[in-house]
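thread: overnight batch results

M.L. [08:02]
morning all. the overnight job finished for the chain we discussed friday. pasting input first so we're all looking at the same thing
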Amino acid sequence: MASDAESYLRYKRPPGFKFEFPADKKFVWVQQGKGADRSYSPAEILQTIDENTYRIRIKDTTEEKVIEASETEGVNPAKFDGVEDCATLGHLSQASVLHNLRLRFDANIIYTYSGLFLVSVNPYAWFPIYTTDVIRRYVNRRRSDAPPHVYAVADEAYRKLLQEKGCQSMLVTGESGAGKTENTKKIIQYLASVGGRGGEGSLEDKIIQANPLLEALGNAKTLKNNNSSRFGKFIKITFDSSGLISGSSIDSYLLERSRVVSRGMDERSFHIFYQLFAGLSQQQRSQYNLTSPEDFLYLSSSRAFIADGIDDVQEFKHTKHALDVLGFAESEQDMLFRVVAAILHIGNIKFGGDEQSHVLDETPLQIASGLLKVDPKVLKAL
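M.L. [08:03]
and the structure it wrote out:
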C-alpha cells in the first residue's frame, strides 16, 4: 500500500512530542461546562485531602479548587495515546475515549475501534484511504491484522455471511454531517469489489451508481452539512453461494418532503433542483421553462442557491451517468426532469379570493400542466 495512505491509517506520535501528563505527577479528567458546552480538561492533583476529596489545579491555568473524587476520571499513561481500540484503555471513560479520538483525529486518523463498534470522525476532506490498493489490504484479514477502517467492518460481515450462511447487518448511524452517507458508499464499494464480476453496467456497478441518484433526489444543504441525507435508507444486497452479488434493493423512509416547499434560512432544497439549472443546456432549460433559481418561490425563500464544496454542474453529470447505468431510457429521464421542473412551477402559482380558490396568474399553472401532460383544469382542482 502506498505510504501516503499508511500515514492516514496508523497512528504515530507527532515529532517533538512531549508527554502531556508527566509521570511524576498525578492527573485526572475534570468536566467543564454542561450540556452542549460540556468538555473535559486535565487537572493535576495537588493534594489528596481524604479518600473522597482532592485539591486540583486545571492544567495550564492557575485555577485551583476542591472537588469530589467521584467527579473525576482517571488519566491513562502516555503509552495508551492513540490506541486503535478504545476498549483497551486502562481508564475507560467518556473523557479518555474523547481524548484518544482527538489525538488520532489531530494526526489525520479518522477511524478508531471502540469494542465491537467502529467510530468515524468526519474530517470534511478527502483522504487517500479508499483506493484499490487499500481495499486489497483488508480482503480476508482479521481485524487485528490491519488498521481500523470501514473496509474491515465490511469484510468481517462478508466473511461471516459466507462462513455462517446467514444474513449480516451493518448499522451506520450518527448526527447530521457525521459521515453516514460517505461511509455507506464505502461499504458498498468494498462489497462490490470483493463480490462483483466487474465492468461498467454490471450489477455491482448499478448498485454503486444508485448513490448519486439517491443523493440528488434525497440530499440537501443544511446549516450543519452541505450534503445531508434528508431520508433514511435500508440497503439490501444479496449474494449467491459462491459469494458473488446476485441482487440488491433499497427501501427509503422518512423522506423530508416538507423541504420542497420550505426550509430554514440559508438552507437548500434537494440537490436535483439546482442541478437542473446548472447542468442542463440552455435549450433544455427553455424546454422546461427554467430561468434561474431566484425566479422560483420554492427555492428563493431560503436565499441559498449554492453550497460550498458542491459543483452542481459536475454533480448533474454524475446523476445523468447514474441514470444511464441504471438503464433509464431518455424518455424516462425526460419525464423525471419534467416532474422536478413542474414542482417548481407549481410553487409559483398564486391564489386569491375569499377562500384562496382563485388562481391569480394562469401562467405557472399552464406551464406545470404542460410539463406533467395533464389538463390544467384537473391540476387546478387538485
